[in-house]
Amino acid sequence: MLLRANVPYSTGFQYIYRNIGRVKNEGIELSLNTVNIKKKNFQWESNFNISFNKNKILALSEDETRLLRPVSWGNYGSTNLYIAELGGPIGQFYGLIWDGLYQIEDFTWQDNSDPSIPHADRAYMLKNTIPTNGSTRSTIRPGDIKYVDVNEDGSISSKDNVVIGRGLPIHYGGFNNNFTYKNLSLNFLLQWWYANDIMNVNRIYMEENEANRSALNHFATYADRWTY
Q1: Which of 41, 61, 95, 116 is the 20 to 30 A CA-CA neighbour of 78?
Q2: Are 101 and 145 in contact (CB under 8 A)?
Protein backbone atom coordinates (compact mmCIF):
# COMPACT_ATOMS: atom_id res chain seq x y z
CA MET A 1 0.00 0.00 0.00
CA LEU A 2 1.06 3.62 -0.55
CA LEU A 3 2.08 4.79 2.92
CA ARG A 4 3.10 8.16 4.35
CA ALA A 5 5.99 6.49 6.10
CA ASN A 6 8.19 7.78 8.90
CA VAL A 7 11.86 8.20 7.95
CA PRO A 8 14.98 9.07 9.99
CA TYR A 9 15.37 12.81 10.61
CA SER A 10 18.87 12.52 9.16
CA THR A 11 17.22 12.42 5.73
CA GLY A 12 15.99 15.99 6.19
CA PHE A 13 12.35 14.88 6.16
CA GLN A 14 9.87 13.51 8.67
CA TYR A 15 7.68 11.57 6.22
CA ILE A 16 7.86 10.40 2.64
CA TYR A 17 5.32 8.51 0.54
CA ARG A 18 6.52 4.98 -0.13
CA ASN A 19 5.01 1.96 -1.81
CA ILE A 20 5.52 -0.12 1.30
CA GLY A 21 3.41 -2.01 3.82
CA ARG A 22 0.71 -4.59 3.26
CA VAL A 23 -3.00 -4.73 4.02
CA LYS A 24 -5.53 -7.53 3.52
CA ASN A 25 -9.11 -6.74 2.52
CA GLU A 26 -11.96 -9.24 2.49
CA GLY A 27 -15.72 -9.22 2.63
CA ILE A 28 -18.90 -9.74 0.66
CA GLU A 29 -21.02 -7.42 -1.48
CA LEU A 30 -24.61 -8.14 -2.45
CA SER A 31 -26.79 -6.42 -5.04
CA LEU A 32 -30.45 -6.84 -5.97
CA ASN A 33 -32.11 -5.25 -9.03
CA THR A 34 -35.89 -5.35 -9.34
CA VAL A 35 -38.66 -4.03 -11.57
CA ASN A 36 -41.42 -3.41 -9.05
CA ILE A 37 -44.07 -1.96 -11.37
CA LYS A 38 -44.12 -1.92 -15.15
CA LYS A 39 -47.20 -0.48 -16.86
CA LYS A 40 -47.84 1.47 -20.03
CA ASN A 41 -47.36 4.93 -18.48
CA PHE A 42 -45.64 4.14 -15.19
CA GLN A 43 -42.57 2.15 -14.19
CA TRP A 44 -40.68 1.72 -10.92
CA GLU A 45 -37.23 0.10 -10.79
CA SER A 46 -35.07 -0.42 -7.70
CA ASN A 47 -31.49 -1.33 -6.91
CA PHE A 48 -30.38 -2.41 -3.44
CA ASN A 49 -26.77 -3.10 -2.47
CA ILE A 50 -24.99 -3.85 0.80
CA SER A 51 -21.30 -4.46 1.53
CA PHE A 52 -19.59 -6.14 4.47
CA ASN A 53 -15.87 -5.45 4.32
CA LYS A 54 -13.00 -5.60 6.77
CA ASN A 55 -9.26 -5.24 6.52
CA LYS A 56 -6.16 -6.18 8.45
CA ILE A 57 -2.78 -4.45 8.44
CA LEU A 58 -0.06 -6.99 7.73
CA ALA A 59 3.01 -4.73 7.48
CA LEU A 60 3.98 -1.08 7.91
CA SER A 61 7.17 0.83 7.17
CA GLU A 62 10.39 -1.07 7.99
CA ASP A 63 9.96 -2.74 11.40
CA GLU A 64 7.14 -0.51 12.71
CA THR A 65 4.38 -2.23 14.67
CA ARG A 66 2.09 0.78 14.79
CA LEU A 67 1.67 4.16 13.13
CA LEU A 68 0.14 7.24 14.81
CA ARG A 69 -1.27 10.22 12.95
CA PRO A 70 -2.59 13.55 14.31
CA VAL A 71 -5.66 15.39 13.14
CA SER A 72 -4.87 18.63 11.31
CA TRP A 73 -7.38 21.10 12.70
CA GLY A 74 -7.07 24.16 14.94
CA ASN A 75 -5.34 23.45 18.23
CA TYR A 76 -5.44 19.71 17.62
CA GLY A 77 -2.61 19.46 15.08
CA SER A 78 -0.29 17.88 17.64
CA THR A 79 -2.80 15.40 19.06
CA ASN A 80 -2.70 11.87 17.67
CA LEU A 81 -6.19 10.81 16.62
CA TYR A 82 -5.60 7.77 14.38
CA ILE A 83 -3.64 4.58 14.88
CA ALA A 84 -2.71 1.75 12.54
CA GLU A 85 -1.46 -1.40 14.28
CA LEU A 86 -0.26 -4.71 12.91
CA GLY A 87 -3.16 -7.14 13.00
CA GLY A 88 -5.74 -4.37 13.34
CA PRO A 89 -7.94 -2.50 10.86
CA ILE A 90 -7.19 0.80 9.13
CA GLY A 91 -8.68 3.99 10.54
CA GLN A 92 -8.97 3.27 14.26
CA PHE A 93 -9.51 6.24 16.57
CA TYR A 94 -6.90 6.61 19.30
CA GLY A 95 -6.93 8.73 22.43
CA LEU A 96 -7.99 9.13 26.05
CA ILE A 97 -11.25 7.74 27.45
CA TRP A 98 -13.59 10.47 28.70
CA ASP A 99 -14.64 9.91 32.31
CA GLY A 100 -16.98 12.82 32.98
CA LEU A 101 -16.12 16.01 34.88
CA TYR A 102 -14.44 16.70 38.20
CA GLN A 103 -16.98 17.38 40.94
CA ILE A 104 -16.61 19.56 44.05
CA GLU A 105 -16.21 16.47 46.24
CA ASP A 106 -13.01 15.60 44.33
CA PHE A 107 -11.28 18.63 45.90
CA THR A 108 -10.19 20.08 49.22
CA TRP A 109 -9.99 23.78 49.96
CA GLN A 110 -9.01 26.07 52.81
CA ASP A 111 -10.56 26.01 56.27
CA ASN A 112 -10.94 22.27 56.21
CA SER A 113 -13.17 22.33 53.14
CA ASP A 114 -15.73 24.63 54.72
CA PRO A 115 -18.72 24.54 52.30
CA SER A 116 -19.80 28.02 53.42
CA ILE A 117 -16.83 29.60 51.63
CA PRO A 118 -17.98 31.04 48.26
CA HIS A 119 -16.69 29.14 45.27
CA ALA A 120 -14.88 32.20 43.95
CA ASP A 121 -12.87 32.42 47.19
CA ARG A 122 -11.87 28.77 47.41
CA ALA A 123 -8.32 27.62 46.72
CA TYR A 124 -9.21 24.26 45.21
CA MET A 125 -6.72 21.41 45.36
CA LEU A 126 -7.45 18.04 43.74
CA LYS A 127 -7.34 15.23 46.27
CA ASN A 128 -4.31 12.97 46.10
CA THR A 129 -6.57 9.95 45.64
CA ILE A 130 -8.08 11.39 42.43
CA PRO A 131 -6.05 11.03 39.17
CA THR A 132 -5.15 14.28 37.40
CA ASN A 133 -6.09 15.00 33.78
CA GLY A 134 -2.54 15.88 32.74
CA SER A 135 -2.51 19.31 34.40
CA THR A 136 -1.07 20.00 37.85
CA ARG A 137 -3.36 19.43 40.81
CA SER A 138 -3.36 23.10 41.81
CA THR A 139 -4.66 24.25 38.40
CA ILE A 140 -7.47 21.70 37.99
CA ARG A 141 -10.92 22.99 38.92
CA PRO A 142 -14.41 21.50 39.43
CA GLY A 143 -16.05 21.12 36.03
CA ASP A 144 -12.79 20.30 34.22
CA ILE A 145 -12.71 17.19 32.08
CA LYS A 146 -11.67 13.83 33.54
CA TYR A 147 -10.07 10.89 31.73
CA VAL A 148 -9.73 7.23 32.66
CA ASP A 149 -6.36 6.50 34.25
CA VAL A 150 -5.78 3.32 32.24
CA ASN A 151 -2.39 2.42 33.73
CA GLU A 152 -3.48 3.59 37.23
CA ASP A 153 -0.36 5.67 37.90
CA GLY A 154 -2.34 8.61 39.32
CA SER A 155 -2.01 10.98 36.34
CA ILE A 156 -3.00 11.16 32.70
CA SER A 157 -0.36 10.95 29.97
CA SER A 158 0.11 9.47 26.50
CA LYS A 159 0.51 6.09 28.22
CA ASP A 160 -3.24 6.14 28.89
CA ASN A 161 -4.17 6.41 25.19
CA VAL A 162 -6.08 3.42 23.83
CA VAL A 163 -8.23 2.57 20.81
CA ILE A 164 -11.51 4.46 21.34
CA GLY A 165 -13.35 4.01 18.04
CA ARG A 166 -13.48 2.58 14.54
CA GLY A 167 -13.37 4.57 11.33
CA LEU A 168 -14.64 1.77 9.10
CA PRO A 169 -18.32 0.72 9.20
CA ILE A 170 -19.40 -2.87 9.76
CA HIS A 171 -21.56 -2.55 6.66
CA TYR A 172 -22.70 0.13 4.25
CA GLY A 173 -24.98 0.25 1.23
CA GLY A 174 -27.53 2.06 -0.83
CA PHE A 175 -31.10 1.87 -2.08
CA ASN A 176 -31.68 3.50 -5.48
CA ASN A 177 -35.11 4.02 -7.08
CA ASN A 178 -36.18 5.16 -10.54
CA PHE A 179 -39.75 6.24 -11.25
CA THR A 180 -40.99 6.99 -14.77
CA TYR A 181 -44.39 8.44 -15.61
CA LYS A 182 -44.92 9.17 -19.30
CA ASN A 183 -42.13 11.67 -20.14
CA LEU A 184 -41.31 12.48 -16.51
CA SER A 185 -38.73 10.68 -14.40
CA LEU A 186 -37.68 10.79 -10.76
CA ASN A 187 -34.65 9.24 -9.09
CA PHE A 188 -33.71 9.14 -5.43
CA LEU A 189 -30.93 7.36 -3.59
CA LEU A 190 -30.65 6.42 0.09
CA GLN A 191 -27.23 5.58 1.54
CA TRP A 192 -26.06 4.44 4.97
CA TRP A 193 -23.04 3.48 7.02
CA TYR A 194 -23.36 1.44 10.22
CA ALA A 195 -21.22 1.27 13.39
CA ASN A 196 -18.39 3.61 12.43
CA ASP A 197 -17.27 6.59 14.49
CA ILE A 198 -16.84 10.20 13.37
CA MET A 199 -14.85 13.00 14.96
CA ASN A 200 -17.49 15.66 15.67
CA VAL A 201 -15.48 18.87 15.22
CA ASN A 202 -18.72 20.90 15.28
CA ARG A 203 -19.20 20.04 18.96
CA ILE A 204 -15.57 20.80 19.77
CA TYR A 205 -15.82 24.22 18.21
CA MET A 206 -19.37 25.15 19.22
CA GLU A 207 -19.48 23.75 22.78
CA GLU A 208 -15.97 24.47 24.03
CA ASN A 209 -15.61 27.20 26.65
CA GLU A 210 -12.68 29.07 25.12
CA ALA A 211 -12.15 32.77 25.88
CA ASN A 212 -11.24 33.59 22.27
CA ARG A 213 -14.60 32.19 21.13
CA SER A 214 -16.78 34.18 23.53
CA ALA A 215 -18.13 36.33 20.68
CA LEU A 216 -19.20 33.33 18.60
CA ASN A 217 -22.54 31.57 18.66
CA HIS A 218 -22.64 28.23 20.47
CA PHE A 219 -24.91 25.22 20.31
CA ALA A 220 -27.95 25.37 22.59
CA THR A 221 -26.42 22.48 24.57
CA TYR A 222 -23.77 24.94 25.80
CA ALA A 223 -26.43 26.40 28.12
CA ASP A 224 -26.48 23.06 29.99
CA ARG A 225 -22.74 23.12 30.73
CA TRP A 226 -21.49 22.22 34.21
CA THR A 227 -21.70 25.08 36.70
CA TYR A 228 -21.24 25.49 40.44
Answers
A1: 61
A2: yes
